[in-house]
Design a protein that fits this description.
Length: 315
């Protein structure tokens, strides 16, 4: 299929990939979910619209919630690289999955909050990231006991009189008197990070195939990964229909040797649910404050490449 040229109007918000993200500080938290509900969310997003052509299988019942503070994002596109760079904060709910019937690992973002309109537009329109605007209140990066609070534009209950407003959605705070992590805070390399991630996946779960866990370990130790998205746009005449719908994947890769540590104290999380943001009903995340253990902190640079369509709906 021959595609038309994109009309590049002056008000274009999107930037063109591939990108390099430099000076990223990532806090990654592990939260319990319900594997059946997580799988249902994956199926509704990918398997159902593609009639089974693309299917991802959740690995265990853990959800990975990340807080990424990216100091500099630069497009490698020959034209956009001359336009400048930007910063971004994003808070994401990730599912670790595999392509059904294979050992091919995929990272699937199901909820994602960012702090800028260009970041939201580029993520949604180019790749299919489920980005929405959020508000963030983080303690400074040099704070040894950092706190993170994210607000979303939410509707508590649906009714004709309901009013969308900013509301807390994801909060993390340290348990200051909590015990230090066994073995200390330093993870020597990506292999150690991979071993830590596999140990978290195994917590409270039986029956995860050893082949899948080995695949997780190899992928994380190699510093690479594949992201999966549903990209779609509602039709103007009937917005309940999609005028465009595709499943997109993109490669990401760590650049250089990252610095990886564990927080000196464990954390607790408070995940809020609303009619507009049903994280409890969709993924099985417990509401209210819950202890979630030590967070992984990674200082690194990484790249994300051009997307590729692995499935497109006929139009």
């Amino acid at each position: 299929m021959t595609l038309p040229n994109l009309v590049q109007r002056p008000e274009r918000l999107t930037a063109f990939p591939p990108f390099v993200q430099s000076g990223c500080v990532l806090h990654n938290f592990c939260v319990d979910g319900d594997q059946t509900l997580i799988q249902g969310a994956l199926d509704a997003t990918f398997k159902t619209p593609s009639n089974g052509a693309v299917s991802y299988t959740a690995i265990g019942s853990k959800l990975f919630l990340s807080v990424a503070e990216i100091a500099r994002i630069t497009s490698l596109d020959p034209g956009d690289s001359r336009r400048g760079w930007m910063q971004e904060i994003d808070v994401t709910v990730w599912v670790m999955a595999c392509v059904t019937g294979t050992l091919d690992l995929r990272w699937i973002p199901l909820w994602l909050f960012v702090d800028s309109a260009p970041a939201m537009a580029t993520g949604r329109e180019v790749y299919g990231f489920p980005k929405q605007i959020g508000r963030f209140d983080f303690s400074p990066q040099d704070d040894p006991a950092r706190r993170f609070s994210t607000q979303a534009f939410a509707i508590a209950t649906y009714s004709p009189e309901s009013h969308a407003a900013w509301a807390p959605i994801i909060e993390f705070e340290p348990i200051v008197a909590g015990p230090p992590p066994p073995g200390g805070t330093v993870l020597q390399d990506l292999e150690a990070l991979a071993a830590h991630a596999v140990a978290r996946l195994r917590e409270g779960v039986t029956g995860i195939e050893s082949g899948l866990l080995n695949a997780v370990s190899r992928t994380l130790a190699g510093g690479g990964g594949v992201l999966g998205f549903l990209k779609q746009f509602p039709d103007a005449e009937d917005p309940r229909l999609a005028c465009y719908q595709a499943i997109v994947e993109a490669d990401c890769q760590v650049i250089g040797a990252p610095n990886v540590t564990l927080t000196p104290q464990p954390y607790r999380a408070n995940i809020h649910s609303y009619a507009s943001h049903p994280l409890a009903a969709q993924l099985g995340i417990a509401e209210g404050w819950q202890e979630i253990g030590h967070a992984v902190v990674v200082h690194f640079d990484f790249s994300i490449g051009l997307g590729r369509n692995v499935w497109m709906a006929a139009t």
